[in-house]
Amino acid sequence: MQKYIFRARDWQGKFNKGLVEARNLREAIKLVKKRRLILVDIKPYQLSFWQRLRLLFSRVSGGQVASFTRRLATMVEAGLPLTESLSLLEKQEKGKMRIVIGDLLRAIEGGSSFTAALKKHRNIFGDIYIASVSAGEEAGVLEKVLLQLADTLEKRQEFLAKVKGAMIYPAIILVGMGGVIFIVVTFVIPKMASLYSEFNARLPWETRVLMAIARWSSVLIWLLPFLIVVAIIAWKIALQQPALRYRYDEIKLRIPILGPLLKATLLTNLTRTLGMMVGTGVPLVDGVATVSRATGNMVYQKALSRADQRVEKGFPLSDALREQMVFPDILVEMVATGEQTGKLDTIFFHLAHFFEMEADQRVKTLTSAIEPLIMIVLGVGVGFLVFAVIMPIYNLTSQF
Fold first, then answer.
1. pLDDT averaged over 10-residue windows placed end to end, the chain, 400 residues
2. What pLDDT was estimated at residue 334?
3. pTM of the prediction?
4. What is the rounded CA–CA span in Å between residue 268 and residue 273?
5. What is the pLDDT of residues 221-264, one digit of tens each?
6. C-alpha triplet 56, 154, 350: angle, nearest 5°
7. Where does residue 315 fall: left (phi above 0), alpha (psi -120 to 50 degrees), or beta otherwise?
8. Is the CB of residue 368 less than 8 Å from the CB of residue 180?
9. What residue spans define the domains of the chain?
10. Which fold has domain 2-151?
11. What is the spatial distance between Cα 299 and Cα 289, in angstroms, rounded to a whole number?
């Protein structure tokens, strides 16, 4: 398939520019005319080197996907055809998201379903999004699915914003402390070292440690960016080993204060997503399998995968979850209630609200615990620096 860029006028005489994707020029012209436009010019489209470079380093955020889904849902619910809705959204967006929407539009114009078009951008929309849209297309309730997806994505973004907001203060304090240590070690200690050596001053061990760090930092500062890159690459390669990744995810869940927050966050996303998928008509087996791949934690991924295998054999989901020993009792019991009453999607949404409230409380607890801890660390660090710098000066003055 080749992309073509065109210029055309609408029936009011207004100029329009856009892209179409077709097998040849003749088919591209037909696609432009289908949009009820008067073609002025059309030619093959090629990205420039700088455009390719910019797209390589740009990304689509979760907030952009949520905003796109909300606007698309509103347009489809209002009765606009999917192609026309995507065409309007393409004109409103910028950057990589605009190109993604354009690709979706051209794929649908070329005869693909919305689900098939989304699969080309799986890394942006994810398996859960695609599976939900697929169920909505098959059931003829795409607008309902898009509205639920928009609600889910917006709540997830709101929750992530709360967690990130709680981490801003500790991050600023740590960065500030790191900056002070860097200035002292790089500029203050080397100048004072020459002074101490001239007077043959006896230095406390704190000062000797700082001087050793200063000597090493003058060498390592040039290697630091390289070492950081190597460490990140090595860490990512190591985490590709399933056993190590499972152990790492397991340790994260056991960290005091932070572990319970991670669990509450995972369970919030898990139950909200399952509620959305079940409510939009996705079979329970497919929903559990899809969510297991998108949990982001190997412990819960394996537990959900084993539970999904049990559900495939005919066991109730509540019994399958109870066997895994990683899900809280309230989740298992509520799921059992949902299965008995036939309102499993509603139960999942209630559970999502419960775990979200718990996660909010955990965030407050984490913030309350971090602030005094940072103050203690900051006090010890400042005291160490002051003692290491002032004590040698005091010893020198006492000699005279």
1. 73 73 75 75 66 60 87 88 86 81 82 86 83 79 83 80 75 78 74 69 72 71 78 86 88 85 85 82 83 83 89 89 89 90 88 86 76 79 75 66
2. 92
3. 0.66
4. 8
5. 677 778 888 888 888 888 888 888 889 888 988 888 778 888 88
6. 135
7. beta
8. no
9. 2-151, 152-400
10. Receptor-associated Protein (1.20.81)
11. 14
Residue with token string 């209002």: 78
Structure-token pair, residue 35: 């949009």
Q: Are 267 and 355 in contact (CB under 8 A)?
A: yes
* 142-196 pLDDT tens trace: 888 888 888 888 877 887 777 777 777 777 877 887 787 777 777 777 777 676 6
Identical fold between 2-151 and 152-400: yes
Token code pair at residue 287: 């929903």
Amino acid sitting at position 81: P
HEC sequence for the chain: CEEEEEEEECCCCCEEEEEEEECCHHHHHHHHHHCCCEEEEEEECCCCHHHHHHHHHCCCCHHHHHHHHHHHHHHHHCCCCHHHHHHHHHHHCCHHHHHHHHHHHHHHHCCCCHHHHHHCCHHHHHHHHHHHHHHHHHHCCHHHHHHHHHHHHHHHHHHHHHHHHHHHHHHHHHHHHHHHHHHHHHHHHHHHHHHHHHCCCCCCHHHHHHHHHHHHHHHHHHHHHHHHHHHHHHHHHHHCCHHHHHHHHHHHHHCCCHHHHHHHHHHHHHHHHHHHHHHCCCCHHHHHHHHHHCCCCHHHHHHHHHHHHHHHCCCCHHHHHHCCCCCCHHHHHHHHHHHHHCCHHHHHHHHHHHHHHHHHHHHHHHHHHHHHHHHHHHHHHHHHHHHHHHHHHHHHHHCC
**Fold for the domain defined by 152-400:** Receptor-associated Protein (1.20.81)
- The pLDDT assigned to 88 comes to 86
